[in-house]
Design brief:
- One of its GO terms (molecular function) is phosphatase activity.
- This is Hydrolase.
- Pfam families: Hydrolase_3.
- There is one protein chain.
- By secondary structure, the chain is of the alpha/beta class.
- The protein has two domains: about 150 residues, 3-Layer(aba) Sandwich (Rossmann fold), CATH 3.40.50.1000; about 110 residues, Hypothetical Protein, Haloacid Dehalogenase-like Hydrolase, Chain: A, domain 2.
- The chain is built from eleven helices and 13 strands.
- It has a five-stranded parallel beta sheet. A five-stranded antiparallel beta sheet has the order 7-6-8-10-9. Strands 3-4-5 form a three-stranded antiparallel beta sheet, with helices on one face.
- α9 links the parallel β11 and β12.
- α2 packs parallel to α11.
- The longest helix is centred in the middle third of the chain and has 14 residues.
- The protein is globular, with a radius of gyration of 18 Å.
Length: about 270
């Protein structure tokens, strides 16, 4: 089947390390759109983080945000779907993990990704690029306020443990009702049960009438693995995490060497 939809991660994949869109990449994305292909960013970012680079990349249509939890149209603002971690699920997780790993901090991202409710102490750990948000604007809430409402994304972070260190501790709790991944950022990302980039892409493709075999996907991080395995053609970047490389059917050049553009150019030729 010919490719009809290009699904691309952003950070570490489409974007260069300085978070820019190269001229070659922009030219290639425009050529794909002129050829009638859907070009969809599929990212851990919230819509506000996608909008920061949307003009540079020419994104005006559908975007899958929050690791596939939130399907939103960048042009109209229409929400196709939004999957939330339920309050009781995140409360059970937070209470148990804080007891098991003291010092763990939590954030609830909700209301379309616009509202960011951070536990007191979190802002002191954070940098702007972690969430495309100024730490000074994150607030300092008690845990009950963080847990008060369902989350599009529930963030779990420790001052000294890496996400790879923290992940087995979280899984050892044996709690149900959520999915967990990480994207190369310094925190774990907890999603509604069953949610992944592949989950969100399945729903968008059904809406657009696109078959799985007609999807070309690009990624570099563990949170891209399900999407790379699911797509008819999954391509990992040269700079990809082993988990993403193992899930993909092929490799391309790095994000700093126009890896996405190279594959699309060959496709369009």
């Amino acid at each position: 089947m010919p490719i009809r939809l290009i699904a691309t991660d952003l950070d570490g994949t489409l974007l260069r390390s300085d978070l820019s869109v190269s001229p070659r990449t922009r030219t290639t994305l425009d050529a794909a759109r002129r050829a009638g292909l859907h070009v969809v960013p599929v990212t851990a970012r919230q819509p506000r983080g996608v909008r920061r680079i949307a003009e540079a990349a020419g994104f005006t249509g559908w975007a899958l945000c929050g690791n596939g939890a939130h399907g939103v149209h960048l042009g109209t603002g229409e929400t196709l779907f939004a999957a939330h971690v339920e309050s009781d699920v995140q409360r059970a997780l937070a209470v148990a993990l804080a007891a098991r790993v003291p010092g763990t901090l939590f954030v609830s991202v909700r209301e379309g990704g616009e509202v960011f409710v951070a536990q007191a102490g979190y802002a002191q750990l954070a940098h702007f690029e972690d969430h495309k948000r100024e730490p000074a604007d994150m607030g300092a809430h008690d845990l009950d306020a963080v847990l008060a409402e369902p989350s599009l994304k529930f963030i779990v972070r420790h001052p000294t443990l890496t996400p790879r260190d923290l992940l087995p501790e979280l899984r050892a709790l044996g709690l149900p009702g959520f999915a967990v991944t990480h994207s190369g950022a310094p925190f774990l990302e907890v999603l509604a049960e069953g949610v992944s980039k592949a989950w969100g892409l399945t729903r968008l493709c059904a809406h657009l009438g696109v078959q799985r075999e007609e999807v070309l996907a690009f990624g570099d991080a563990p949170n891209d693995a399900e999407m790379l395995a699911w797509a008819g053609r999954g391509v990992a970047m040269a700079n990809a995490d082993p988990e993403a490389r193992d899930a993909a059917g092929e490799m391309t050049a790095s994000n700093d060497d126009d890896g996405v553009a190279r594959v699309i150019e060959a496709l369009l030729a």
